[in-house]
């Protein structure tokens, strides 16, 4: 059981993080907004902790959008948006808002037991990654966004260029 929990959490968190980075490569202006928020709130290359989470609404909205778009286990009811809504997780004041329809960890008896841990890991890794690095596409081009799979959505291998910030 412990091995199942370990590998279940490891694969999904890694996969979500990889998709999140792929999305930024497709939308570099999102990275600019993340960097602006990090520079304004954190202002250094210190380690970001969970205590910083509530002060970074744009970054949290980006993580939510990454989870929404990734849809790691595509066996649920098919769904789509009817219009472009890139900042759907922010209210008119730029504050993070709860969107009840976002349930990347499922609900009820089948809800992910590691939801709290996964949310913490995603926040800490992604926030510290973008606080320390600027990422850009490599000469090989943008990562594929193809999600054609029957049971699990995994990113295709891609390369990128990392540049240390500060």
From TrEMBL:
Keywords: Heme, Iron, Metal-binding, Monooxygenase, Oxidoreductase. It holds the Pfam family p450. Heme binds at residue 112. One of its GO terms (molecular function) is oxidoreductase activity, acting on paired donors, with incorporation or reduction of molecular oxygen. InterPro entries: Cyt_P450 (IPR001128), Cyt_P450_CS (IPR017972), Cyt_P450_E_grp-I (IPR002401), Cyt_P450_sf (IPR036396), Cytochrome_P450_fam2 (IPR050182). This is Protein CBG21822. Belongs to the cytochrome P450 family. The keyword Calcium does not apply.
């Amino acid at each position: 059981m412990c091995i199942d929990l370990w590998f279940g959490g490891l694969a999904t968190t890694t996969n979500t993080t990889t998709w999140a980075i792929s999305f930024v490569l497709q939308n570099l202006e999102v990275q600019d907004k993340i960097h602006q928020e990090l520079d304004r709130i954190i202002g250094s290359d210190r380690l970001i902790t969970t205590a910083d989470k509530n002060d970074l609404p744009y970054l949290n909205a980006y993580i939510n959008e990454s989870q929404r778009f990734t849809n790691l286990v595509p066996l649920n009811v098919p769904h789509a948006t009817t219009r472009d809504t890139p900042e759907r997780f922010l209210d008119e004041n730029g504050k993070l808002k709860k969107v009840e329809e976002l349930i990347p960890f499922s609900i009820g008896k089948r809800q992910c037991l590691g939801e709290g841990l996964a949310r913490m890991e995603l926040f800490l890794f992604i926030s510290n990654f973008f606080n320390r690095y600027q990422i850009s596409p490599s000469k090989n081009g943008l990562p594929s966004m193809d999600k054609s799979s029957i049971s699990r959505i995994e990113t295709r291998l891609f390369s990128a260029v990392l540049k240390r910030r500060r």
